[in-house]
Amino acid sequence: MSGCEARDAKKLVRSPSGLRMVPEHRSARSPFGLDEPPWVPDKECPRCMQCDTKFDFITRKHHCRRCGKCFCDKCCSKKVPLPRMCFVDPVRQCAECALISQKETEFYDKQLKVLMNGATFFVTLGTSDKSELMVCRLSNNQRYLVLDGDSHYEIEIVQISTVQILTEGFTPGGGNTRAIGMVLQYKVPGSEELKQMKFTASEDFSCNKKLSASWLAAMHKVSKGGKTEKAE
Fold it and tell me: Are residues 44 and 84 in the same domain?
């Protein structure tokens, strides 16, 4: 087990918003996560914060699990998965937040899974003229980029400063390009020095080309923020 996987244990906790499966150690939290928002106190919201309907015995108050604001049932009826807050089941969200969460579903269900499954690349360190064949993947807790070959590296995602995707096949019309590698720049904790790694897709098997291209596309998505809304 690698060092970055050693503290992946999770625990089930109950909050007013629902059941959550969260890391036992806060240091193992995903960099893509969001904290639960404080709920707007009932006494401060006599009316729906969307349609202005007055609350009474029949028209009850509901809090959006993503923004914490107070709504009537009509304006906060959707239950949508919210993996960024580690909820076990879909939770009630207002229409605006539900749309954001639905857009994030592809990132969590597709891109992150692609990165965690990994792909094989030739990795070159800095200005070295030697490369090493390595399996590259995102750690289970989503905090580290793990590289395994004869050598072993763990790069913290939050320390990555730039991701440049390398492509080939560019045409004047802008089509027919495919990702063949990337250049990664990152900082080592405790140092301001930027280090660089170059990843080049292995051409050993034709099936690996597609896998590598999918992995690079997912990495590009992560480098651009990954989500439709960053943590506040």
Answer: yes
State the residue range of the domain holding 141. 118-169+179-222
What does each C-alpha distance from 232 to 113, 171, 225 come to in angstroms? 24, 40, 13
Are 104 and 130 part of one and the same domain?
A: no
CB-based burial label for 148 (10 Å; 0-12, 13-18, 19+): middle
Question: Do 104 and 227 form a contact (C-beta atoms < 8 A)?
Answer: yes
For 44-111, the DSSP string reads G-SB-TTT-PBP-SSS--EE-TTT--EE-TTTS-EEE--GGGTBSS-EEE-HHHHHHHHHHHHIIIII
- Confidence label for 8 from pLDDT (cuts 50, 70 and 90): low
Distance of CA 207 to the CA centre of its chain: 26
CATH number, position 39: 3.30.40.10
Q: Are 65 and 91 in contact (CB under 8 A)?
A: yes
231 in a domain, yes or no?
Answer: no
Residue 109 pLDDT > 60, yes or no?
yes
- Coil, helix or strand for 19? strand
Query: Final residue of a domain: which of 114, 130, 153?
Result: 114
